Amino acid sequence: MSILGRSARRANPPEGVPLDYIEPATLGVAVELLASDEAARPLGGGTALMLLMRYGFLRPSRLVGLRRLASDLGGISVNDRHELRLGALTTLRDLELSRQVARSAPVLVEALHIVGNVRVRNAATLGGHLAHGDPHQDLPPILLAMGARAHAVGPRGSRWIPLDQLNLGYYQTALEPAELLTELALPVQPEGTQGSYTKFTAVSAEDWPALGVAVFFRRDQDRLAGVRLALSAAMDRPQRLAGVEAMLDGERPSESLFQAAAETASSAVEPMADGGGSTAYKREMIRVHVRRALEKTMRAPALRSG
Amino acid sequence: MPRQAGRSLRRLESHAKVTGTVEYVHNLELPGMLHGKIFRSTVPHARLARVDVAAARTAPGVEQVITGQDVLSIIPDPYYGPAFHDQPILALEKVRFAGEPVAIVLAADPYAAQAALDLIEVEYEELPAVYNEVEAALKGAPLVHDKLRPGSMFADLIHVRPRSGSNVHVDYRVRRGDVEEAFRASERVFEDTFHTPAVAAAPLEPIVTVAEPGGSGPLTIHSATQNPSFVRGELARLLGWPENRVRVRTAFLGGGFGGKQYIKLEALAAASTLLAQRPVKISLTMDEQFVTITRHASTIRMKTGVSADGRILARECEIWWNGGAYADIGPRVTQKAGFTSAGPYDIENVSIDSYAVYTNLPPAGALRGFGVPQVNWAHETQGDRIARELGMDPLEFRLKNLLRNGRPQASGTILQDSGTEEVTKEVASAMRWAEPLDCGTGTTRRGRGVALAIKAGVTPTTSVAIVTLAGDGSCTVYAGTVDVGQGSQTVLAQIAAEGLALRAEEVRVIHPDTDATPYDMGSVGSRSTFHMGLAIQGATEQVSRQLIEMAAPVLGADAADLELYDGSVVARGRGDAEISFRELMATRFGKNTGTLVGSGSFTASYDTPDPDTGQSDDVAVFWMIGAVGAEVTVDTETGKVMVQRLVNVADVGKAINPLLVSTQLSGGALLQFGYAMSEEMRFEEGQLVNSGLAQYKIPTMLDMPKSVEVVLVEVPHRNGPLGAKGMGETGTLAVSAAIGNAVFDALGVQVKELPLTPERVLRAIRAGAGRPLED
């Protein structure tokens, strides 16, 4: 549905409506506040929520500002499983500048350089980036391919959600109402892992991607191992392509193998038409960019342990 | 003291602009001011069965809610517009596009006004709608207007004949020679149809107006308008008042590009302030700007007959302009772009039909080029196809057919003082055209293209200026030219300074205020430096004459031996005999008192074209002549085009300020670069689906051409101020076609529809290779 089409039916996009704004000091209170009012929404960096409100898609009765929770839900550390632990309220800019992230997930940093622009990254949070459920985000396919898990806290307690179960559809996530993401755990990538993220924008360089491709693999002698490949933006949600991974795993990399993988990828998903292109064009771009992403990953530096 | 004309002076307001201290109407707040928020139609074409604003009127904070019926109580015939009086201040019996203003809510708090919009209920009886310009022109198409309401403001539109009983409200034509006969005599005949989409001006300062009721004084309109004099006249006409009871003033504009031309919010703001008897501010959001004014979408059919050796023998152009629901300045676009649609070529047989067509889309008007960028896309794209199919170099084909001084343009007006040959030579040299270019063989192909442009300066129009000298000898210029960001304040100061032998920095040019500045037709169509420059020259001549007459007895010299130099009157050949302006004023009026006043005006000549043939001896005050060269790389697997070089060559007559002229040209080129590459308003069933800058893609710095170059050509105009011509639009005209031709050179396939999005280019590549992209 069109932006003006929707907002026009609501008369006009509001520039702002009187609403309640609360900044709780604890996660528990934040969850309570969200649970007690169906039309309440959590506010992280606001880079997505404010746009949705501006266009009249969302009319929350109450905004629950999360910034006072940043000391608990922010930060970058390593947990006892040696996983990289990224707090949900960490800004994208902090992730981008983190040495720790650069060491263990260089592909993530590469992608962060081209998420929105620096003003957006200064405000946007990792939790918001994921909970938004917009299929045109840059990080989800990378996190998906890296096997990340997200931790959520809600009225019914807390749980871990594997990232491949987080996105259910177009702007739809597995999060319950009033459930908040608190952190993300990135498993240690095997030594020798090579990875890449490819962002294709169709009309303007500073745009949401029309297609995102994340690829990781290792080289076992002259064969590919541990192949993980995820696509985003062209479909209604980021997806890992198990079939394509299987046809690459254990194979010798070659032009024809990559070509075949790209063909399979392009027919494995259902692209949706939008401002970035028609279904046919998106399918064609998957064919082109999966192949290029595999070639690019071959040239990527291998991760060293420690 | 340096000559003031030819100085590359930075804008006089540069410091104030970068420190955030210049005035914009957007920032204006007045005591007791109300904010107006507009309720807009949600459907493209409907009878208004019921407009219920009762609930909104009682909403918290709301002062007043005004509907079309309320407007009738103070303005019985509330239809406005520069060419037709066809646009109601607020919709009356029906709405004609999705986004049309139906009611306005006034409140001291803009958020309260906005919130109350949700309480307005409108019942629509939907009518069949029409969106495509070619379909709308067909017999039997749903009529957008049952009755045509032509206006009478502009002399160049008087001969434009409205057509009734059709959505085609203007049907402009040129007939020269016999095209049918010439097609029969042609070796090859080429026929193509081209499309351009509606695009947005999107100035960063919104379209904004603040109105004050005035009480015993005049109704005062502070507006970000490019046409203050026109707005005054139009409001006076609507209200049935004399013009001197309406005051229109502007400040610096944060961009206009044509989007702030003629009348936009002023009539609604005037009606609101008169009904509320309080100051009212209406400021549009970016989304609202998109449905307020667009550049015409167009369909252009072009048929060209050529001889075996590449001479164009005949050209037939048929153009449908998608005018949207209201004419705005579309009739002038239809005429202006119409008569140069055969290009800057010497063609004996020309037939042009240019139709302004109403549709149920937002109104279209002028946007940097008055329709010429659209027709240029057609004739320059087809030009490269013809050259390629004849096996000719595209530049050689253009040179062979070039319109040169002394030869009649399609309208019959003889080209003069125009650098068509010079710009072609310069673009060839800048592009190193004689050297071969390796197009490459892999998935990255390289190509280059050129395109030439011609546009007629609008005529007949008038500018009037007053120049004063105060008791201290300081100079003020009263000019109605609006500084929309083009730097007119600086250039007009240079012209006045040149006339009075002052430094431009010492001259003050005041912003338009119809209580103080005399009539000016408007800051449109690249006309200000030429027209206002000449008016200011006339005014400074009067002041200069008075100074010399005053100085002659004081210096005991003959007036013929006196001249102005650096703020003084100096006797030629008698080195030490001089008197400063300040001292001279004191001898006449007493110390630090008095004012010297000079005035000047310029009205361009014009010969009304024959309505059946479009032929005229004098249809352009000057010609804007340009050439663009582009070098591109294309990713053949994605269709993505990157412009590596964009070279803009323009004949500016005389660059009074070379720095500002160059930035005007590169700015215009980059504006059009967006329209060539990515910008396109997309409508579905009359609803705009990519409103606002998040969805509608203006190029970012990362998308810009790697190199943007400007080359100035100076072929002086015999009547221009210091030889100058208008050039504000010259840089935009041929950009799309130059890039398209470079893509053609790289790929061997042509795209005939703008913008050149990767998908459109990839589809052309695949169709050309016989493997079309399957949907």
Commentary on this structure:
The complex is a heterodimer of chains A (306) and B (775). Chain A is of the alpha+beta class. Chain A has 3 domains: 17-68, Uridine Diphospho-n-acetylenolpyruvylglucosamine Reductase, domain 2 (2-Layer Sandwich), CATH 3.30.43.10; 70-186, Uridine Diphospho-n-acetylenolpyruvylglucosamine Reductase, domain 3, CATH 3.30.465; 195-299, Enolase-like, domain 1 (2-Layer Sandwich), CATH 3.30.390. Chain A has helices spanning 3-9, 27-35, 49-54, 70-73, 92-97, 99-104, 106-112, 118-123, 126-131, 139-145, 242-248, 255-268, 279-299; strands at 20-22, 40-43, 62-65, 76-78, 84-87, 149-154, 157-162, 167-169, 172-173, 180-186, 194-200, 211-220, 223-232, 239-240. In chain A, the strands form 4 sheets. Chain A has a 5-stranded antiparallel beta sheet. In chain A, strand 8 (167-169) and strand 9 (172-173) form a beta hairpin. In chain A, helix 11 (242-248) packs antiparallel against helix 12 (255-268) and helix 12 packs antiparallel against helix 13 (279-299). The model of chain A is unreliable at 1-17 (pLDDT under 50). The radius of gyration of chain B is 27 Å and the shape is globular. In chain B, helix 7 (228-239) links the parallel strand 12 and strand 13. The longest helix of chain B has 28 residues, at 528-555. In chain B, helix 10 packs parallel to helix 11 and helix 17 (658-677) packs across helix 18 (735-747). Chain B is α+β, with helices and mostly antiparallel strands and 775 residues long. Chain B has 19 helices and 32 strands. In chain B, the strands form 9 sheets. A 7-stranded mixed beta sheet of chain B has the order 3-7-1-14-11-12-13, sandwiched between helices. The A-B interface holds A 2-5, 7-18, 51, 55, 200, 202-207, 275, 277-281, 284-285, 288 and B 37-40, 42, 98-99, 110-111, 114-115, 117-118, 120, 285, 287, 290-291, 637-638, 640, 677-678, 682, 684, 687-692, 694-695, 697-700, 702-703, 757-759, 762-763, 773-775.
